[in-house]
């Protein structure tokens, strides 16, 4: 069986940026043979949240390449140039393209790597390939859309699988009820409920805010309740001094801080990213409620300081026991559909790595995102997007995507050189790309 130098799990922005860095390293004659496995049938960037008017929350300059190599073929500016839209984009006068356009940019970038990415395959688990007492290789087991299980061997692994929908405990028993779904599958699911009249949106982050406005426009007569524990929807702070926490050198600062300092930094700046919609969106929502006041109707409701104590599936709806934290009282409401805009968990890599967990010291990564392992374990395993607690709030975002891949590739070159028979890694590999 063929042995790859590197297999990447997931082909979202993090691993596309890595593929680009590896490609550009090839031109510097460091050849690392890589392959990527993506569970979606084609490239798509959070497709079920591709809502009208949704915009990027980061400057287009923090694209897949610019921060690492502004002269790369894969910059957003070169994409515009290739698509003959550069001048039109300039006339838009924005740093924040639509998510629709950024998805098109990412799709364009991903398309360069079709020869080394298997789409429509979900990685199920990673198994050790032992030689004596040492683990030399990893066996990556995946299942394609025809339910066929594939296996591939690799010397190193990069896991960049993004977040998994966070479902609050009280909703887990409703998993099979199609009337309850997470924001992650919003567009796919909402189309199945054209006649919904009572809708609950749980959460107070960017996803909840975007979905509330989408529902407001999508259903003229439905009642939408926006339910959150917070006292107010607070805006994401992207003012310049605060935004410095997303600078690449801040990653060093966070990583080199003590555990306690890191916890304090994360907590101080938590609301730059989480439970923090854009101010413009908050103003739009406020305006909806204000117009209701003028009209003297209460179509939608803003249920702040509310908790869902219980959710029960009934024939004619999903029944909530809501707890009003302000008034300290419970009451019952029933909904036709419930959208859980409750954020994401980022620990699924532990399930994929379950068969090799004993080889890792403590599931912490080093500065170059490599999981610390025992000496008998030779492969390097890197994590992208699951290192917020050690590397800071930029880890789940696009901010450091380009520079992070440079750090990983440097560690990979070191690791692969040690693994290669000659101890050298200077294999000139012809580029498979025409650009
Ligand atoms: C709606 C939405 C909008 C966002 N907008 C912004 C923004 O404007 N700016 C910003 O900085 N950040 C934004 N983010 C944060 C987001 O995390 C990053 O933009 C970016 O998507 C991170 O890239 P990634 O490759 O690490 O993860 P993802 O984009 O989540 O990609 C992970 C990929 O791995 C695949 N995968 C998962 N499990 C497996 C498996 N077992 N086998 C094979 N493939 C698998 C997934 O299908 C997916 O394609 C947004 C997040 C959401 C939810
Ligand atoms: N256009 C865009 O660019 C765009 C669009 C959508 C998302 N995003 C990004 O995607 C990331 C995630 O955003 P998100 O809005 O999906 O998630 P989020 O910011 O993590 O917000 C999750 C919300 O759910 C609430 N919540 C979590 N668990 C809950 C529970 N058990 N019960 C009740 N409420 C609960 C949280 O409330 P508490 O605060 O009370 O815990 C919070 O209000 C962010 O980086 C965001 O910027 C970007």
Automatic annotation (TrEMBL):
An example Gene Ontology molecular-function term: oxidoreductase activity
Pathway entry: Siderophore biosynthesis
UniProt record similarity statement: Belongs to the lysine N(6)-hydroxylase/L-ornithine N(5)-oxygenase family.
A biological-process GO annotation: intracellular iron ion homeostasis
InterPro entries membership: FAD/NAD-bd_sf, Lys/Orn_oxygenase
Record-given protein name: Lysine N6-hydroxylase/L-ornithine N5-oxygenase
Pfam families named in the record: Lys_Orn_oxgnase
Upper classification of the organism: Bacteria, Pseudomonadati, Pseudomonadota, Betaproteobacteria, Nitrosomonadales
CC cofactor: FAD
Keyword terms: FAD, Flavoprotein, NADP, Oxidoreductase
Keyword NADP included in the entry's annotation: yes
């Amino acid at each position: 069986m063929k042995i790859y130098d590197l297999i990447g799990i997931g082909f979202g922005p993090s691993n596309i940026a890595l593929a680009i860095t590896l490609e550009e390293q090839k031109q510097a004659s460091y050849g690392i043979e890589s392959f990527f496995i993506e569970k979606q049938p084609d490239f798509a960037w959070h497709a079920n949240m591709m809502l009208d008017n949704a915009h990027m929350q980061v400057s287009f300059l923090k694209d897949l390449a610019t921060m690492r190599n502004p002269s790369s073929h894969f910059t957003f500016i070169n994409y515009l140039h290739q698509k003959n839209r550069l001048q039109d984009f300039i006339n838009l006068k924005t740093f924040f393209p639509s998510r629709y356009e950024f998805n098109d940019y990412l799709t364009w970038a991903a398309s360069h790597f079709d020869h080394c990415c298997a789409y429509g395959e979900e990685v199920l688990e990673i198994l050790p390939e032992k030689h004596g007492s040492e683990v030399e290789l990893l066996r990556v087991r995946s299942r394609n859309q025809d339910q066929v299980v594939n296996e591939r061997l690799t010397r190193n692994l990069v896991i960049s699988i993004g977040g998994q929908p966070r479902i609050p405990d009280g909703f887990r028993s409703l998993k099979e009820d199609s009337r309850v779904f997470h924001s992650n599958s919003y567009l796919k699911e909402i189309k199945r409920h054209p006649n919904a009249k009572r809708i609950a949106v749980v959460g107070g982050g960017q996803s909840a805010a975007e979905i509330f406005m989408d529902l407001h426009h999508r259903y003229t007569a439905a009642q939408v309740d926006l339910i959150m524990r917070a006292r107010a929807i607070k805006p994401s702070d992207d003012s310049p001094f605060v935004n410095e926490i997303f600078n690449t050198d801040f990653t060093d600062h966070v990583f080199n801080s003590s555990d306690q300092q890191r916890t304090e930094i994360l907590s101080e700046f938590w609301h730059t990213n989480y439970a923090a919609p854009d101010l413009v969106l908050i103003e739009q929502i406020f305006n909806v409620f204000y117009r209701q006041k003028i009209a003297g109707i209460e179509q939608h409701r803003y249920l702040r300081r509310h908790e869902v104590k219980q959710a029960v599936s009934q024939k004619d709806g999903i029944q909530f026991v809501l707890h009003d934290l302000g008034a300290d009282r419970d009451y019952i409401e029933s909904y036709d559909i419930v959208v859980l805009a409750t954020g994401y968990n980022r620990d699924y890599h532990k399930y994929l790595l379950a068969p090799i967990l004993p080889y890792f010291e403590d599931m912490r990564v080093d500065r170059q995102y490599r999981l610390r392992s025992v000496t008998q374990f030779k492969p390097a395993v890197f994590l992208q997007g699951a290192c917020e607690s050690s590397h800071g709030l930029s880890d789940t975002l696009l901010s450091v995507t380009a520079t992070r891949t440079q750090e990983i590739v440097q560690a990979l070159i070191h690791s692969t050189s040690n693994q290669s028979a000659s101890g050298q890694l200077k294999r000139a590999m012809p580029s498979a790309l025409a650009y």
